[in-house]
Amino acid sequence: MKKVLVYFTQFGSALGGGEFTPLAFISELQKSCKVTLALNWRSDVSRAAETLGIPLDMSLLDVVYVKPRNSLLRRLDAVFPVCRTWKLKKLAKKADLCISTANMADFGRPAHHFVYLLRHFGDNAFCDRLAGRPALRGTARLRRKLRTALAEYFLRPLLGVRSSRKILADPREKIYPTSHYVEKIMRDFYGDFNSTVFYPPTIWEPSLPAPARDPLKVVSLGQLFPEKRLMEIVALVERARELSGLDLKLSLAGPLGATPYVGKLQAAAAEKSWLTLPGPMYGSEKERFLRSASYAVHAERDEAFGISVTEYLKSGLVPVVPDEGGTCEIAGTPALCWHTVEEGAKILARLASDAGFGKEQRQFCAERAELFTRQVYEKNQHALLAGILDSIGEDRHP
What domain range includes position 285? Predict the structure, then answer.
């Protein structure tokens, strides 16, 4: 039986699209392989799998932790992942195949790396460009170059840790961006690398009888974080109400943490009778919530993929999404993509008030949803992992 090492960060209380990939891969790999899951921190893997509806045999899964417990070593590992890398290399020696589902990880041998979160890429210059921060100048730029040179040419080689840049530059490594959007921005920065776009798991499927759909209900589902730009969604729906003259209602579902941003959203809901915050949604409650609405609005612009948008499509919703990031790739038509809040409001207002346009887009979205069904994903995942397993032994170790 082949031995596979899968690396991920951790499974916390907030479960999103990134957590699907390692669990879905392990579920598939356990059918023919002995799997070891390497995590940074202690996690309730069983609870995460159950919450996300992914079958795992925990009795056959070895779970190990690669981040140090010592506070001093932990601070060092945050800058240079020395302890993590050494532990992964040690584990990799016993494995036939290594897979990172959290960006590039140094296993000390060629491996398969699935892009996870661009904001956690471990490369300051790349993250600066992604965030749109201006390029450093003068002495600040010189200090950055000196630090980078010190890290790349002295500290990392001395400690035996390759950077993301070094891994990407090695043609024996296999990189899997989550969308063509991600592949493009990575290539624009790093140049060419050995890549194959692979959409992440979108395995949630509606299964209950369809409830009555409210023709004026708009929803958004996910974490209530600033990067989700939820106040833009509120402004967009408010403007669409003005343009259409219709009583559109917005419901933002997600965990109501005690944060300033959630407080801001709660204050807005207290002022606007058409805005509600129902809290987190999982399982059948989530399905009823999504299928009771007619439209969804998404606002995060630099999202690598956007699993929530696939869930909107599969729920029969018409999503209105930004014209940047992976979500417009999912929507598949410029007719539903907006750049400014005003543009998004006009799209939503037209969907709600123009019966012909609304019917046309709803039919398009129903056809688009077929590309993201669980059946299609599992077929693609099976073919991908079967090909990876068949290729064991073809790569030469460094």
Answer: 217-372
Q: Are 205 and 145 in contact (CB under 8 A)?
A: no
Q: Give 10-residue mean pLDDT values along the chain (398 residues).
A: 95 78 95 97 93 91 92 76 93 97 95 86 78 72 77 80 91 95 93 95 85 96 94 98 98 95 98 97 92 97 88 97 94 97 98 98 97 92 95 62
State the DSSP string of 349-379.
HHHHH-HHHHHHHHHHHHHHHGGG-HHHHHH
pTM (2 d.p.):
0.84
* Residue whose C-alpha is closest to residue 276's, from 338, 219, 322: 219
Tell me the CA distances in angstroms from 88 to 6, 93, 105, 338, 355, one per residue in order.
10, 9, 8, 43, 56
| 193 Rama class: left (phi>0) / alpha (psi -120 to 50) / beta | beta
Q: Residue 209 has what DSSP assignment?
A: P
Q: Flag whether 396 is in a domain.
A: no
Q: What are phi and psi of 115, to 5 degrees?
A: -65, 135
Please check whether residue 230 is in contact with residue 238, taking contact to mean a CB–CB distance below 8 angstroms.
Answer: no
β partners of residue 32 = none
Which CATH number do you get for residue 83?
3.40.50.2000
